[in-house]
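Encode chain A's predicted structure.
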Amino acid sequence: MSKRKQIRSKEQFAAALELERAGDHAAALKLYQKSATTDPANSHAWNRQMVLFRKTKSKEDEAKLIKTAIAEYRKSYETKQQDWLQKNQDKAESTRELAHILGILEPTGLPANHDATVEKWQTRLYLLEYRIKNVRKKKASLEKPLNKSSKRTAAEKKRKQNAVTQPRLEKSDKINPI
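Encoded structure for chain A:
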């Protein structure tokens, strides 16, 4: 990865961050995607995309993004390792046996990579897929079931209201016709 691409990616990330702070999430997401495409090792651009998907509650899209981010980030890391090996072949050969004895080499011959960023993304992906799989089914209607008091007709409600507003007469208070 050239320094120019890394600088361009950082500039795109900074512009996207400003758009996000201004509230333009759609444009910010596009710039974060450009930044991550320009430099797949830019973990901040991947993280901000995940945050925006989380804010919009797009779980399936976020899961796809995390899978893509892990693959691209690892691919970028391996490319950097391969480039270093080509430039520093003498150093690599002199320490290869020691690294093999210590068990820090992958079967591919590259050093083992235990990146905390990828581990966090894998944990997030696992939890996200669990939530997607076990999502609760929303009820068809969110209304509360009607109880007896709410089933009254309008006439019954009016009668009850009139009974409350009019004073109650006792038997002795009733007027007897003569």
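The two ends are 111 Å apart (CA to CA).
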